[in-house]
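re: ur question from yesterday

yeah so i grabbed the chain u mentioned. its 286 aa long if i counted rite. heres the sequnce exactly as i have it in my notes:
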Amino acid sequence: MARKDASVLTISPDGPFRGAVTTFGALVGSGFRRYATYRQATIAGTFTNIVFGFLRCYVLLAVAASAIGGRAAGYDAEQLATYVWLGQGLLSVVGMWGWTELADRIRSGDVAADLLRPVSPVTSYLASDLGRAGHGMLTRFVPPLVVGLLFFPLRTPTRWQTVPLFLLSVLLAVVVSFGCRFLVNATAYWLHDARGPLMMWTLGAGVLGGLYFPLRLLPEWFSVALWVATPLPSLLQTPLDVAAERDTPAMQAGLVALQLFWAVAVLGLAALVQRRAEKRLVVQGG
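ran it thru and got these structure tokens back, copy pasting raw so excuse formatting
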């Protein structure tokens, strides 16, 4: 069935574009079904996210209570609670770590089979990751948000554009996260073992992506440099700031536009790295 779905890229009588869309949709659905089989892991992961949500929320609320005017780095208590509980829900949607499939297949040599398929590895893995994110949005995002609403005063959006901008920002965050994880995994083409880069990514993405605390708590020059020079704040910080309405509408749109830039940049770089890696494999006779 997978070969049949993939083959429509070249033999579909409806044209290459419709064939490509059909193939991509089939791969997205396959990724969704794959993660839907792990029901116990989904329940356990959701429970863990909720427990850590309470810990993080009380810590940040204590920071706000000790700040002048009850605001820490421009966030009031409601915005901080919203930041924490949406972040706990988005953690599994964005998927900042835990994916080593490409690196494992490179190390075992199974990646050779991926290169024989009519769909680029970047495209196929991206589609599968979007399916995973869709499953996470349905199963891992809602429970922490409901718990947050029950126990803490969360901020309700007051601008019509906040919800669509937030949904778009989440989608872009998933794409940026995938592109970064693909690049880290792809180092195995040259290193043959990507565990070192993967560990560095796990540490850096959590701290500099806005998971553990809002990056606005850092010195302004440093947080601005992170936003402009790296894609890391686009992982969680941007969608959470959009949802919490931390900035003006114009700034919200600007942050999402910056996310779009990073999404295009990392996907383009991932495609370039993949092409270079394939040439390297050919030179080595792989």
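noticed a couple things. The CA atoms of residues 78 and 154 lie 5 Å apart. also The chain has one domain: 2-283.
anyway ttyl
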